[in-house]
């Protein structure tokens, strides 16, 4: 993009998310402020319990913050109700989970088609787009296979295809390589990196591994529900 | 989208066919019971109507006393009729074709060393006209015989029991102390609407019956036939008026006799079968209820098992009402399939039962449609709670499940 200061795709301001109340209250997010621009590849790291998953849930509109503002494309979404958040996820967001979360006893193709069903696409178009997405992750030849017939790395690539199929503006990945060995992890990260570079896909990813975070342009370090540091990585600086 | 949901539901159901089948077994049995019962009930109602036709739809039965149920009962202390009443009704009323006295007693008929317990009916030749009954062999009573001689006409069953294939005409049989000559054999009529064998009968002249068997000239029952084209109401009116006159019943006094029509008889029989259908339908309703609870139970289990799937669907953008619909449609499709199975099973049972009971097989499209709608409704009612609990799941919790 030629613009020097593009309007941020995502802007969080003073976001909190509290669980429980009184003495037992947990401040999972305790005043998070950050912006993510279109086309960025952001990694989030931090100690266990620092609020990374909570932040991802808020960013992914699976959860509502206790307070603060969340502007998505300049629109306030912090106060949306369940059904409105579902629509937002349907049209703008894609998810990749640590545990793949594919539907068992459904083919790879059916899994990738799932978001398109809720987008109301006709069957033929659905299949075409799902195949396209599977092709993008290099698994078109496994379209008819069940998840149980695929390796962990392949399952995660099917999950990536599912996240891509709906043509989202942002893909959110919470520990996408958490269940994979180093070799598979690197393959997945290279795929995400490629999608980010070649298609301008905005990616926000949580990881525990420094090596994986290095694939991103920017690294956010969270501690105790707050953003501790926010810097460019070697790749981002390059 | 709806078709998509139905397809999805079918997929989920067929993924575990045995469990799905066991789940809907209650509905299958309930619907099958209703369909089988109603179909057989309709068959027997049709059969009753046909049977009443064989009794003679244009018959009236006159019995003494205020009988409430059917002919022959409730006579009690009421004044009996006389033979002259039969003649008066037959001669004076243009609406009445003819009539016959009827007195009945259970006796043992003996021929040689064969005997058979049967019903001896004291009447006269007019009885054959009234009941539209033809002779298979021999002749009716002569007037000389009707004067009190010992002659008899055998029903088909009695003839078979006593004589087998031999010719009974001219032979003497014994009825108690009375020895009488067989002069005729009636055509076979088959079972009555009550299920009794109409052919298990011996007719003897009324006067002979009165003197030698009953020891009284009282006529306990008069059977009348209406003339063609006369309405039942008019004939009943005429008979009532004449009998009140003969029996000197003053205005404002109640009748001390009852006129039964075949319409009453058939409606009584239909009434019995309706009560039966009602009772069995209650049983069916209970079994549908149990079936519905079975569906609810399995759907709740299914929602729990598929919590993660629900979370995934919500994550990719399914709204609560879409999740609700998915599970509701699944339980409707499940119970409707159970309904279809039940309808097929019920019709098969009804066809089998109709064959065994020798009644016509008369499926009722209305009842079949109703049973289907009802089974689908069971799916809605009992699927709602599980579907709502699926829709209310929190996507984050569901994904973590
Ligand atoms: N549903 C919940 N109810 C109560 N407390 C919660 C809930 N979810 C998270 N928390 C708390 O919020 C804090 C942040 O949790 P979160 O899952 O965001 O951590 P995380 O950074 O993702 O940790 P990890 O690296 O182990 O995944 C933790 O203290 C956690 O116990
Ligand atoms: Mg986490």
Question: How would you describe this structure to a colleague?
Answer:
The complex is a heterodimer of chains A (238) and B (401). Chain A is of the alpha/beta class. Helices cover 35% and strands 26% of the residues of chain A. In chain A, helix 3 runs parallel beside helix 5 and helix 5 runs parallel beside helix 6. The longest helix of chain A is centred in the C-terminal third of the chain and has 18 residues. The radius of gyration of chain A is 18 Å and the shape is globular. With 401 residues, chain B is an alpha+beta fold. Chain B has 13 helices and ten strands. A six-stranded mixed β-barrel of chain B has the order 2-3-8-5-7-6. Chain B is elongated and about 105 Å long. Classes of the chains: A alpha/beta (238), B alpha+beta (401). At the A-B interface, helix 2 and helix 3 of A face helix 10, helix 11 and helix 13 of B. Adenosine-5'-triphosphate binds next to strand 2 and helix 1 of chain A. Magnesium ion binds next to helix 1 of chain A. Chain A: Belongs to the ABC transporter superfamily. Macrolide exporter (TC 3.A.1.122) family.
Draw up the topology in text.
The complex is a heterodimer of chains A (238) and B (401).
Chain A lengths: L9 E10 L6 E11 L4 E5 L6 H8 L7 E6 L2 E2 L5 H11 E4 L11 H11 L4 H14 L15 H14 L4 E5 L7 H18 L2 E5 L3 H4 L4 E6 L2 E7 L1 H4 L1
Parallel strand pairs in A: 3-8, 3-9, 6-7, 7-8
Antiparallel strand pairs in A: 1-2, 1-4, 4-5, 9-10
Chain B lengths: L1 H13 L2 H39 L3 E6 L18 H10 L3 E16 L2 E10 L2 H5 L4 E4 L4 H4 L4 E4 L1 H8 L8 E4 L2 E9 L14 E5 H9 L6 E6 L5 H15 L10 E5 H44 L1 H9 L4 H38 L7 H27 L3 H6 L1
Parallel strand pairs in B: 3-8, 5-7
Antiparallel strand pairs in B: 1-9, 1-10, 2-3, 2-6, 2-9, 4-7, 5-8, 6-7
Bound molecules: adenosine-5'-triphosphate (ATP) and magnesium ion (MG).
The site of adenosine-5'-triphosphate has 11 residues of chain A, from strand 2 and helix 1.
Pfam family, one (chain A): ABC_tran
Keywords (chain A): ATP-binding, Cell inner membrane, Cell membrane, Membrane, Nucleotide-binding, Transport
GO molecular function, one term (chain A): transmembrane transporter activity
């Amino acid at each position: 993009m030629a613009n020097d200061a593009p309007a941020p795709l995502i802007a969080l301001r003073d976001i909190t998310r509290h669980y429980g109340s009184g003495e037992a209250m947990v401040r999972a997010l305790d005043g998070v402020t950050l912006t993510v621009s279109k086309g960025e590849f952001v990694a989030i790291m931090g100690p266990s319990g620092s609020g990374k998953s909570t932040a991802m849930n808020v960013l992914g509109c699976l959860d509502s913050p206790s307070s603060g503002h969340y502007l998505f494309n300049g629109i306030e979404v912090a106060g949306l109700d369940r059904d409105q958040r579902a629509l937002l996820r349907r049209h703008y967001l894609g998810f990749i989970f640590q545990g793949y979360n594919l539907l068992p006893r459904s083919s790879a193709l059916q899994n990738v088609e799932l978001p398109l069903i809720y987008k109301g696409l006709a069957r033929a178009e659905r299949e075409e787009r799902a195949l396209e997405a599977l092709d993008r992750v290099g698994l078109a030849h496994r379209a008819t296979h069940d998840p149980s017939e695929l390796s962990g790395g392949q399952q995660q690539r099917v999950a990536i295809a599912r996240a891509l199929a709906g043509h989202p503006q942002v893909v959110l990945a919470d520990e996408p390589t958490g269940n994979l060995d180093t070799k598979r992890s690197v393959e997945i990260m290279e795929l995400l990196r490629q999608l980010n570079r070649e298609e301008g896909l905005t990616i926000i990813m949580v990881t525990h591994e420094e090596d994986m975070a290095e694939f991103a342009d920017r690294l956010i370090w969270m501690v105790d529900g707050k953003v501790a540091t926010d810097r460019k990585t070697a790749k981002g600086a390059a | 989208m709806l078709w998509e949901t139905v397809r999805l539901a079918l997929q989920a159901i067929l993924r575990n066919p045995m469990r799905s089948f066991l789940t809907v077994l209650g509905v299958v049995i309930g619907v099958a019971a209703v369909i089988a019962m109603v179909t057989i009930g309709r068959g027997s109602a049709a059969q009753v109507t046909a049977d009443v036709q064989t009794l003679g739809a244009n018959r009236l039965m006159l019995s003494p006393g205020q009988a409430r149920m059917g002919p022959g009962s409730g006579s009690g202390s009421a004044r009996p009729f006389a033979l002259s009443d039969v003649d008066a009704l037959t001669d004076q009323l243009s609406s009445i074709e003819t009539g016959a006295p009827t007195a009945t007693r259970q006796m043992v008929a003996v021929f040689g060393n064969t005997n058979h317990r049967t019903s001896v009916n004291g009447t006269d030749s007019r009885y054959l006209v009234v009941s539209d009954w033809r002779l298979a062999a021999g002749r009716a009573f002569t007037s000389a015989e009707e004067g009190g001689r010992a002659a008899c006409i055998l029903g088909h069953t009695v003839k078979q029991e006593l004589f087998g294939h031999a010719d009974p005409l001219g032979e003497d049989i014994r009825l108690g102390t009375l020895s009488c000559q067989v002069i005729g054999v009636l055509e076979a009529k088959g079972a009555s609407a009550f299920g009794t064998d109409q052919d298990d009968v011996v007719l003897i002249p009324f006067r002979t019956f009165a003197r030698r068997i009953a020891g009284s000239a009282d006529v306990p029952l008069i059977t009348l036939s209406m003339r063609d084209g006369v309405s039942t109401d008019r004939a009943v009116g005429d008979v009532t008026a004449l009998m009140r006159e003969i029996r000197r019943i003053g205005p404002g006094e109640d009748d001390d006799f009852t006129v039964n029509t075949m319409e009453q008889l058939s409606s009584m029989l239909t009434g019995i079968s309706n009560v039966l259908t009602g009772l069995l339908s209650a049983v069916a309703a209970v079994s549908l209820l149990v079936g519905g609870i079975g569906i609810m139970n399995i759907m709740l289990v299914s929602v729990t098992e598929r919590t993660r799937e629900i979370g995934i669907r919500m994550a990719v953008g399914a709204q609560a009402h879409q999740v609700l619909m998915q599970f509701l449609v699944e339980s409707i499709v499940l119970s409707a399939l159970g309904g279809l199975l039940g309808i097929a099973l019920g019709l098969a049972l009804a066809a089998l039962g109709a064959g065994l009971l020798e009644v016509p097989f008369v499926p009722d499209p209305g009842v079949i449609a109703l049973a289907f709608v009802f089974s689908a409704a069971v799916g809605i009612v009992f699927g709602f709670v599980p579907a709502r609990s699926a829709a209310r799941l929190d996507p984050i919790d569901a994904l973590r499940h």
